[in-house]
Amino acid sequence: MNRAAEDWRISDDLISELVLRSAGLPLHIDAVLKLALRLNARLPGREFTADDLSGGLPDVVQRLIRTLSPAEARAFRAACVLPSFDIQLAAAVAGVDAADVERAIRFALVEHDDGLVYPYRVHDEIRRLVKLDRDSEGYWSLADWESAARRGLHEAIARIKAGHELGSDAAQLQGIALAIRLGYEWDIYPEGLAKIVSDGPSIAVLAPLIPPESVVQSDSAISDFIRFVHALALPFDAGAARLLTLHPTDPEVAHFTLRWAMYRSRSVCRFDEAMRAAGLLVESAPPAFAKLSRYQYAVTLRACRRFADSEEYVKVWRPDRIDRWQAMADRLYGVANYDPTELARNSAGNTSRRFQLELEINDLVRNARFKGDLDVDRINAYLERSINLGQFSFQRDCLLLLGYANLGNRVIFDGLVDNLRNHESYDYSAYVYCQLLALRALYLGDREIARPAYQEIISRERSRNAYWISAEVWLEALGFDIPPEDTQWLMPYEDVRANWMMVADRLIRQAKARSGEAAELGS
């Protein structure tokens, strides 16, 4: 302690006693220093006594709180509710002015790091002691603490919505992480959080910002929800398997766990698991999600190549969606039904930036296949954003589009397919890898280029979902004998083959035009 610098009147004996009492713990020493600064500011030149500064850390913290005004003390307690905070957040939780928070930061035990989105935090031990305090004037009861935590969750969710309106992925993710961390600390699951996360920009970026699964021990709703988030962050095949082992008791968390188990299972061709999850989803869906669950059951049937069953189901249960269902089925058959107004229609009322990104990239894929347009600059911009968000499904589609654009550039093309092949979620993108190799083989008239794709198909232990159809057609056109899959075709397979060969012709013509060539398919 620098007595001269602070103009403190404190004896050597008292300093020795304080050092001994603190056992050299920096947190205790910091608390004593803060208390001495506050006391000296109130009565400059006072002589400190053991009654002023001595005692255990809990005593020192209580004395420090007593030096604060009621509004400052409330601000400090609000800071102790939060795992980290900024001034506006603490003010909202405390119900005080920002100036009160600023003074609490200056006068109490608050750490500061300008490099963080929420730059202030109170040490966990100090937070614990303040929560246990029942002696200081204006102390909070357990109910007061929980009410403050709920105010913090309300503010975090408001920030998520504001981030969406501002178009800021980072603001949304920081708000979501704050809500999850705060909910975990207070064992509160705020209704609607699962949908917010499902609609959010990125699970891959979110997962490292929340408590790790290894520390989650209880079976509460918020704990089950954290397990769900970490399962979503796994590579697709492992994530599908993990999601199927989770059985949350909270209806909302259970619904989204089942929904994503269905999504991931059908994407990696786990047909039985996907259909089982889809069935349970329909049986247990809360009313708000009942219609969506019905439609997703039909989509899952379609992904499993059960087109006739899917069509019958959607006609019975979601006749209002039959036109959209038919358009998607046609595209799996290679039917050129590009509609330039579809993106705007599908985007209307959308509240998810992740889903909006999916819609926009899907529109680029349709545009390339069925209209013949490829905007490489736009594709690269979407690829960069997808990489930053850790959204591999969107990266995969951008790599597919860049593969279309670079059929004539061996170096770039090989780099793209290597990227797909070496990704940890390759099981999810194998059909894109095979599709690109087959298309390049058609482009060059060299079937051996596609042999790795053929080997991929014949070595698979799982069935192939509907997204494999184009690769199958193109590999057959190259003379490879493709093992059949059980498929409920809604049009003659010869027509499906002809449709996809027209898509290949369109893509190859475009690639050759980009390379300054002009040749017919196969010439």
Structural write-up:
Helix 7 crosses helix 8, helix 10 packs antiparallel against helix 11 (169-186) and helix 24 runs parallel beside helix 26 (426-444). Strands 1-2 form a two-stranded antiparallel ribbon. A hairpin with a 7-residue loop joins strand 1 and strand 2 (120-121). Helix content is 67%, strand content 1%. It is mainly α and 523 residues long.
Short description:
By secondary structure, this protein is mainly α. It contains 29 helices and 2 strands. α15 (236-243) runs antiparallel to α16 (251-267).
Any key phrases for this structure?
523 residues; mainly alpha; two-stranded antiparallel sheet; 1% strand; disordered C terminus
State the end-to-end distance.
Answer: 86 Å
C-alpha geometry: elongated
Unreliable spans are 518-523
Radius of gyration: 30 Å
Q: How many DSSP-defined strands? A: 2
What fraction, in percent, of the residue positions are helical?
Answer: 55-70%
Strand order in the largest sheet = 1-2
Averaged pLDDT, please? 90
Number of helices: 29
Largest sheet: 2 strands, antiparallel
Question: In what range is the share of β-strand residues?
Answer: under 5%
Q: What structural category characterises the helix and strand content?
A: mainly alpha
